[in-house]
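Deliverable D5.2: sample structural annotation.
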Amino acid sequence: MDFSERLFGLGAVLWQSIIMVFPRPLLIFLLGVNLSLGAEKPEFLFLVGEYEYGTRESLPEFAEKNLKPKGYKTKFVFAESDDRADAGCHEFPGLKKALDGADVLVISTRRRFPPKEEMAMIREWIADGKPVVGIRTASHAFAAREKGKGYTTPEGHESWQNIDTEFFGAKYEGHFPGSTDAETFVRVSEGSENHVLLKGTKWKKPKKVKTSLYKNRELVADADVVLEGFVASGESEPLAWTRERDEQRIFYTSLGGVDDFNEEWFQRVMLNALEWAAGMNAPGKRPALEKR
């Protein structure tokens, strides 16, 4: 028996002794802690350019409360301005550098048109199959329109008219009126009761929210609807879903108002969604945290 074989045998005896001394649950816990400490933490990049739903304030607060304690890294890139009359409305300082180090891109913009070079980088990110999380207005994140001032694409900038159908998987067709007669309620989609995105939430009955319900039509077949929204008339729409294209993970929710982020259950769904997108809380092969 050579030295390596003796060393291996000694290690086996030592491990067997440890198993006999320590309770199995404690060993599993200690191994889990060791693995989590050694695992690389993902970095979430939040691209924010809207003022209608207050994510400039709510997303940093959410990250501070839910992501920072878990050791996750975050970066925020905000639009230079929220004034439609200001050219800075479509400028996102630091986006290129932030994309280079990110693992998951979180989009919360509404009809903003980045410079062509930066839009090319966003399209490249998506084409490369990297994870994306879309919040509410992400369905029309970069879509231009004629109605209103400041909604057409400035020279040197670029729109992406159909990111809703081409990527997130449903056609955005406006929303139900935000009146009392059209109050929004949220329920779990049939068959999704044990979905990983709902871990840590309770759903004995539908939850009432203040955010108006988006009309998301022509949902693609590969979308896995987790939550549905409905109004008093009974009309319903998909409200939160995932997509998996090869190894790319995509999550979208039409919620995302300030009042939504004040709800503990919504914060938990968002945390679960971010971890799912990064491959942290779902079975199967974890996508490599490739750096650009």
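Annotation notes: The first helix runs from residue 3 to 21. The chain has a mean pLDDT of 87.
The annotation will be released with the project's public dataset once the embargo ends.
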